[in-house]
UniProtKB/TrEMBL annotation:
SUPFAM superfamilies: NAD(P)-binding Rossmann-fold domains (SSF51735)
Domain D-isomer specific 2-hydroxyacid dehydrogenase NAD-binding as annotated: residue spans: 110-278
Keyword annotations of the record: NAD, Oxidoreductase, Pyruvate
Gene3D superfamilies: NAD(P)-binding Rossmann-like Domain
Domain of life: Bacteria
GO-annotated molecular function: NAD binding; oxidoreductase activity
Pfam families associated with the record: 2-Hacid_dh_C (PF02826)
Organism the protein comes from: Pseudooceanicola antarcticus
Keyword Repeat: no
InterPro entries named among the record's database cross-references: D-isomer_DH_NAD-bd (IPR006140), NAD(P)-bd_dom_sf (IPR036291)
Protein name, entry field: Glyoxylate/hydroxypyruvate reductase A
Length: 313
C-alpha cells in the first residue's frame, strides 16, 4: 500500500508569528489526520496551500500554480483583497478564541461607560453619587452583526442592554433590533448612547461615522471602535468630542498603525487609545481552523470562511 501523499503548506508570516504558530499548525494538521509539511521556504511550484498574514510578505501569488487556497490567519483581509494576482479561493480567519476575546473587550468597555467608572472610581476627591440608569434603558448600537459584532451584540443583550444592530443584509438576531442597508443606518444610530464599530473597511463603510452620522446619537454618546480606523472620519470625531456631541471615544484601530505619537487622539482628554489589541487571534483555536480548511480542501469539501470579493469582506 502506498503512503498517503503529504500536502505542502507554505506558512508566510513575520518571524515571531511564524515561531508562535508553526508548532500549533503542525499539531492541528496531525490531529485532523492530514499528513503535511509546513515550512516558510517551499519551492513555489510545490505549494498546495498558502497560510499567511496578509501584510505584503507575498506580493505575487501567481508564482504558486497549484495552490488550492490562500488561508489568512488574520480576520481582516482588506490589505490583500485587491491583489490582482490572488485569484485562488481566499479564506479569512474566523477564530472562536478571538470571538471570545472580542466579547470580553467590548463588554468591558461598554460597562466602563455605562456604569460611569471613570467618574466614580478615578476621581480623587468629592462624593458624586450619580447612579447609572439600568442597562435596559440604555440604547447600544452595534455597527456590524457578523462573527464578532453579532456575538458582542448578543452578550450585551444578555446583560439587558437595549441593543440595536446594523448590517448590510437583513439579519434576525434574538434580543437585537436589527436594521440593514444604507436606509437602516439613521434608525440604528438615532438616540444611541453607546456605538460600537465592528465592520470591515469597504468603499461603503469607509467614514460611516462622519459629521452627519455623529450628529444622530444621544448627546454625550460614546463611540467604541475595535473594527477598523477608516470607519471613522477622524476630524469629524474630534469635532464631535470637542463640541460635546460625543462624550468619549475608545479607539483600538486607526488609519495609520502604530498611531503616530503626535496624532491628536493621543493627547485628547476624551479619547482612550489601545494598540489594536481588542482581540488577537488565539494560536490553538486558529490553528484548528486552518487545519480544518486544509482537511476540507483535501476531502473535496467547501472551504470555510471564504471572502466575498464582490462585497469586499
Ligand atoms: N481590533 C481587533 O483586535 C480586531 C480583531 C479582529 C477583527 N477586527 C475587525 O472586526 C471587524 C469585523 O469582523 P467580523 O469577523 O465580525 O466580520 P464579518 O463576520 O465579516 O462581519 C462584518 C459585518 O459587517 C457588516 N457590513 C459589511 N458591509 C456593510 C455595509 N456596507 N453596511 C452595513 N453593514 C455592513 C456585515 O453585514 P452582513 O451581516 O450583511 O454580511 C456583517 O454583519 C473587521 O473589520 C475586522 O478586521 C478587529
Amino acid at each position: 500500500m502506498s503512503a498517503r501523499r503529504h500536502v505542502n503548506v507554505l506558512f508566510s508570516a513575520p518571524k515571531a508569528t511564524y515561531e508562535e504558530f508553526h508548532p500549533a499548525i503542525c499539531a492541528a494538521l496531525q490531529a485532523a489526520g492530514v499528513p503535511a509539511r509546513v515550512a516558510g521556504d517551499l519551492a513555489p511550484e510545490e505549494v498546495d496551500y498558502i497560510v499567511f498574514t496578509p501584510n505584503d510578505l507575498i506580493s505575487d501569488f501567481s508564482v504558486f500554480p497549484r495552490a488550492r487556497a490562500a488561508l489568512s490567519i488574520w480576520a481582516g483581509v482588506d490589505k490583500v483583497l485587491h491583489n490582482p494576482t490572488l485569484t485562488m479561493p481566499l479564506a479569512r480567519m474566523v477564530d472562536p478564541g478571538q470571538r471570545e476575546g472580542m466579547v470580553e473587550f467590548v463588554t468591558a468597555h461598554v460597562l466602563r461607560h455605562h456604569i460611569g467608572m471613570d467618574r466614580h472610581i478615578l476621581s480623587s476627591s468629592g462624593w458624586d453619587q450619580v447612579a447609572p440608569k439600568l442597562a435596559r434603558h440604555r440604547k447600544v448600537t452595534m455597527l456590524g452583526l457578523g462573527e464578532l459584532g453579532g456575538a458582542c451584540a448578543q452578550a450585551l443583550s444578555a446583560l439587558n442592554f437595549y441593543v440595536h444592530g446594523w448590517s448590510r443584509r437583513p439579519r434576525a438576531l434574538e434580543g437585537i433590533t436589527c436594521h440593514a442597508g444604507p436606509d437602516g443606518l439613521e434608525a440604528a444610530l438615532a438616540g444611541a448612547e453607546i456605538i460600537i464599530c465592528l465592520l470591515p473597511t469597504t468603499p461603503e463603510t469607509e467614514n460611516v461615522l462622519n459629521a452627519h452620522t455623529l450628529s444622530l446619537p444621544a448627546a454625550g454618546a460614546v463611540v467604541i471602535n475595535p473594527g477598523r480606523g477608516a470607519l471613522i472620519d477622524d476630524a469629524a470625531l474630534i469635532a464631535a468630542l470637542d463640541s460635546g456631541a460625543l462624550g468619549h471615544a475608545t479607539l483600538d484601530t486607526f488609519r495609520v498603525e502604530p498611531l503616530p505619537e503626535d496624532h491628536p487622539f493621543r493627547a485628547h482628554p476624551k479619547v482612550t487609545v489601545s494598540p489594536h489589541v481588542a482581540s488577537l487571534v488565539r494560536v490553538d483555536t486558529s490553528a484548528a481552523v486552518i487545519a480544518e480548511n486544509i482537511r476540507r480542501g483535501e476531502a473535496g469539501e467547501a472551504f470555510l470562511h471564504l471572502v466575498n470579493r464582490q462585497a469586499g469582506y
